[in-house]
Design goal:
The chain contains four helices and seven strands; from the N terminus they run αβββααββαββ. By secondary structure, it is of the alpha+beta class.
Length: about 150
């Protein structure tokens, strides 16, 4: 898949930002035009982007992957409200770092508060431009998607 224009800037920036936010060995695949299949309960966080670039970032995976990532970061299991809070904060960290990096490329943007997404059906109603599959070693798979608002 070839991404052009500001969508290429968005994809390239996300590819730089994710490894800076997630401090574990991981691999990012090239952007794809469809979400990778995640065979379990869908879980994720949606953060709006406003300003020169408008859209949403969606970090998607399973509750198990988010929970394992949180446990590896904090040394204790995360469940219930703690897992929800961590998921939102992970979205904030990725979007905040994205905002800082994209500002250095000449775009002025801001982010909205995160929205926790926990139902499979809500993910399939979103029209996205691309997603970047992420594998975090010994933790699990996620993806980060760009949903433009043009």
């Amino acid at each position: 898949m070839t991404i052009v224009g500001k969508h290429a800037e968005i994809a390239n920036t996300l590819i730089q930002v994710v490894p800076a936010v997630i401090p574990f060995p991981l691999s990012l695949q090239p952007p794809v035009s469809s979400f990778p299949s995640i065979p379990s309960t869908e879980w994720g966080v949606l953060v709006g982007i406003t300003g020169d670039i408008r859209g949403k970032l969606l970090v998607k995976g399973t509750s198990e992957t988010f929970g394992q990532l949180g446990q590896n970061l904090f040394g204790m299991p995360l469940e219930g409200a703690m897992l929800e809070s961590f998921t939102g904060e992970l979205g904030n960290m990725i979007a905040g770092n994205f905002s800082s990096h994209i500002f250095q490329k000449g775009f002025s943007i801001d982010i909205t508060p995160p929205t926790l997404m926990t139902e499979e059906s809500s993910f399939y109603q979103l029209a996205y431009e691309f997603s970047i599959p992420i594998n975090i070693d010994q933790i699990g798979d996620m993806s980060i998607a760009w949903i433009p608002h043009d």
